[in-house]
């Protein structure tokens, strides 16, 4: 509701969020230790219902869930949230398998290497399925709808197009609100707990850039997910160390080493697929927008010269105004693209380099 309120405030007015929205939200956020802004956890993990409420599934099944609320009212937005949800649901099995592998190794005596090999092989299969689910984005979400109709609703308090700050009426009534209101970023599936938890179990390397990315996004996760992820990140890489010791003793063709490397490669392949999605949904549309706006800027300069009486017929003013607005909007996104691609490719390459050789 706060997100909706902020983004329906006319651009000429300050964003002043009323006490009736802010105080309850801040109170609940403090209680849950959660950012008081919309996060991936809000629009994905806690934004679904069962299609058939009488279904007796102990665990909700992918085909019996639906997204509940959207900001844009488009089926694309609902579909986008469903992709994330289905990945989290399916991915839980991989987390379970990796948890079991860790337990088996930690137990110490008589480690059943074959069993660990089986767990890792099954994990690879699940990660492959995650990639398949991620790619269903192409069927469910139209890139131009994502870019032009969904993304603007999700922009956070740190990225207002008109540079306005969000003013929270009544914030002084809630303990810790000052500290909570520092967590202002826009939501992104980068806040998903699933992928970094898989990374942590598999011992995927973290360089400074990845570490700082994770430290930035983890404060937007549900508190218990974040604690779980942190505890894994801080413990030694149990599975990887075990596989390394076997590789040293028995060579890299040993089934458990092969199975581990396949799981790591599956994570790399998942990141390759994610890069395809980022290209389709962010890079191409932002370039298109920049191109349109270049044309808009050209048209509006023609317009100005026309207004000053230097040339012939007038062009419609409306088109250039829209294009100018799009030019302002496109500039920051286009500027961010090279850095974004560098970061994501870096994470992808680091994943591949984690293989035990
Ligand atoms: C339309 C769909 C999607 C788009 C446009 C998209 C875009 C992005 C962008 C721009 C980033 C860069 C950093 C950031 O701003 O957070 C990112 C990172 C990330 N996204 Fe997505 N994403 C999409 C779907 C998903 C889904 C469904 C998942 C899985 C649940 C996911 C998982 C991640 C992860 C884990 C990162 C962190 C980087 C990494 O670990 O490799 N994304 N995404």
UniProtKB/TrEMBL annotation:
Residue numbers binding heme b: 274
Chain positions covered by the region annotation Disordered: 301-328
GO biological process, one term: L-tryptophan catabolic process to kynurenine
GO molecular function: heme binding; indoleamine 2,3-dioxygenase activity; metal ion binding
Pfam families in alphabetical order: IDO
Recorded family membership: Belongs to the indoleamine 2,3-dioxygenase family.
Protein name: Uncharacterized protein
